[in-house]
Amino acid sequence: MITQRFNTHLPWRMSGRAKNNHFFGFAFLLNYVCENLPDYGKALEIGSYMGESTQMIAASGIFSEIHSVDPFKGTEEFNKEFGHTWSKVKSEYNKNIRYFDNIYHHQGYSYDEVPKFPNAEFEFIYIDASHKYEDVKKDIELSLPKLKYKGIIAGHDYSWSEVKKAVDEKFNPEEVIVFLDSSWAYIKN
Exposed e or buried b for every residue in 43-70, given b needs 16+ CB within 10 A? Predict the structure, then answer.
């Protein structure tokens, strides 16, 4: 596993502390994507929730199309913990993507929606849906044929044991790059 330790080189560090590690960690993943992929490719996001990462992927400016997949239903611990309804989550998603006309949302579960895309369609695929081992494994298996050669497949929460197990079973852990916010990336070869 290659671990990116950017937190000691952040130009926006204040008083010796990085602000909002999730945002900046994801920004490092997007910077890595920008440096390793051609401009104006297509991206697929599995698990868009409130659309924060969808918005950041679109704001990077390197993708002509971003396709997000989320059913806006089911069990979500964050909803229970903070009293969110799926209606509120979907409203926040729409608010977060409102300035981008190149985002296309596919409302449904990944196992129904991802097979509809042509193979070798995407330069970048980001997985941040269910964190259960079987679900992560299935999302990776469904996504890989949709990724172009030398495309980047990535996801979030590599620090979660079930996510790590699914990623490490599918890819050589020595070739997985892990970022400050626990995002992970792998270049398809």
Answer: bbbbbbbbbbbbbbbbebebbeebbbbb
